[in-house]
Automatic annotation (TrEMBL):
SMART domains: SMI1_KNR4 (SM00860). Coiled coil: none annotated. Residues 12-141 form the Knr4/Smi1-like domain. It comes from Seinonella peptonophila. It holds the Pfam family SMI1_KNR4. SUPFAM superfamilies: SMI1/KNR4-like. It comes from the Bacteria. This is SMI1-KNR4 cell-wall.
Length: 144
């Protein structure tokens, strides 16, 4: 997968920054995500369309793991818990162009990826939909 780093001005991510975020959320990111985020913090994928349920959704960009960025993952994670009552095991890792989120679902040791559409109430099955079993699978599903 190719990533467009020219569209963002995000600093490179260090192992220390990743560990800070993980410690705060009490999780451990999968190795495939850690590898990609170190090289592509806040970047946009070249292929930006993915099937979610029966809809095609746009994958805009990865959330940043740097605290000085507007799209800092921890800020969005806390906001989703406080204002949307999204359970803490959902960790936003990417956003679409409408402000919806692709999230890790840390209910299991190997987190899957879900899409959180904030236009629906959490009790609606359309609010949180399974996208892939892993981050690698998510990236492989992205289409032009």
């Amino acid at each position: 997968m190719n990533w467009d780093k020219t569209s963002s001005n995000h600093p490179q991510i260090t192992e220390e920054l990743i560990q800070t975020v993980e410690h705060r959320m009490q999780i451990r990111f999968p190795a495939d995500y850690r590898t990609i985020i170190k090289e592509n913090n806040g970047a946009r994928p070249i292929n930006q369309t993915i099937q979610v349920g029966t809809q095609n959704e746009g994958f805009d960009k990865l959330m940043s793991l740097h605290p000085s960025d507007d799209d800092y993952l921890l800020i969005h994670w806390e906001m989703l818990q406080q204002h949307h009552e999204l359970p803490r095991h959902y960790v936003p890792i990417a956003i679409d162009s409408f402000g919806n989120y692709f999230c890790f679902d840390f209910q299991q040791d190997n987190p899957s990826i879900v899409f959180y559409d904030q236009n629906f109430e959490l009790i609606d099955p359309k609010a949180i939909q399974h996208v892939s079993d892993s981050f690698t699978q998510l990236v492989e599903k992205l289409q032009p």
